[in-house]
Amino acid sequence: MSQPKYTEQQAAAIETGGVSIALSAGAGCGKTFVLTQRFLRQLEPGPDTADLGTLVAITFTDRAAREMRDRVRESCQLRLQHCEHHEVEHWLTVLRGLDAARISTIHSFCTSLLRANAVEARLDPGFSVLEPALADTLMQTASETVIHKLLIQDDPDVVPFVLKFGLERTRDLMSQMARQRFRMDWSIWEDVTPEVLAEDWRRRWVTEFVPKLIDEVRTSPAGRTVLEMLSEHRPQHPEMERRCDLVVEKLELEHKWSDPLLELTNLREAAKVQGGGGKSVWPSEDVFEIVKDSLSSLRADIDRVVKQLPVVEEDLQLSAEFACRGLRLARHVSENYDTLKRQAGTLDFDDLLLRARDLLRDHRDVRQRFALGIRLLMVDEFQDTDPVQAEIVRSLCGEALRHGKLFFVGDAKQSIYRFRRADPQVFRTLREELPSQGQMSLTRNFRSQPAMLQFVNVLFGAEFERYEPLEPFRNEQLSPIPVIEFLFATHDAEKSDVTDDHKPRAEELRRREADWMARRIVELLADATP
Question: What pTM does this model have?
Fold first, then answer.
């Protein structure tokens, strides 16, 4: 039968062999189609046909897993209808096995792994999995029990917390901290004192955060505009020229700031046109106005950063004391939560990932046996993968990580699950580890019109390193321009909501924004204009 038509980028992603592939796929560029076709290519009849059970596809949601399975089934049925007579039994066998195909979420995959190796994982193979809502309820129970018990004992950690934040807020804070056990090694905090922690914060503030604040000034829109204007236009006035030289010197990224407060003060003093000869010393009045406005914005950026520089020692020490208390309390809550789960014979979603990671890491025989059963590991939405999931992927691929065993798809600008510990840097790091011929992209967009893609490219091109512009599948702009609308739900959007005592909270603004968007969509759908 004839094969589907591929773009050049799709063909490379589907057909390239001998190397693992990291596919950076923009929205609307057909990445689900490519995933499906890559999966199917392994099943094509021939001497190198893969056994269906050796193909593993990991999706982000159950819905995505069902969609991929359905697409594979539809494609297999088409192949069955149009294949040669001697291939009929092959495609029938594939179709019969699709319901058991290893296409699932990462949590379902880890559940199967743990049940199959329950002895090594030290688990009852009949364990149940807590849905997130039930896990939250159990965590609240664990927190309430611990806080109540420690209050009765007049515990020196919990009493100050309750006096400071109240009982309910303390329970919520401890639940939130205990949920971070995913990334927390409680043992390293056992001997940490408030003094040691405060000193570490102080050092990090000076060596890590202050430089970032300085870079915010240098790379701000005002800073970039000032550098651009002063590199092209120079004033004919000695004092203004001296100021411009100083501003350019301090805004250059290569310049090292030994005393940030002093340097910012000097930069702010130089970033003004008053007393610098006026507009007549500049090439034109327009240039003067742009420089003047940009320097004014730069001074505002400097003022904002300067307010953040001082460290209030009393606040620092108090924060360190509460942090140490909170860590000890959160550890009690986490241990109680684990006890409640163990008594109920359950694991939560985090447990599935951590236990699977530990099983593969600590048991070489399990790792090798499971890895041998996988010919191709495919992972969708890799930009929303966290470091633990990446460890699992590495364990399953082993030495074949770079050599054709892995196929993963992601798009850093679509990463929206950082609150679930997703880290788009995981995608970038693993992608850069693969050979250059395996670092591929899908940039041909089938969903949006040229004007929309032009806007997206301008917006993201300024914010993302090595951004790959999206290209329209059709160059014809069908709908009238402009095609972009903004609905900003700001504090002053509806004056009736704003008083001296009340400004809408973020939650209220989000609800307003959603309401506006829904109303606008209804309006557009009702409009007879195509």
Answer: 0.78
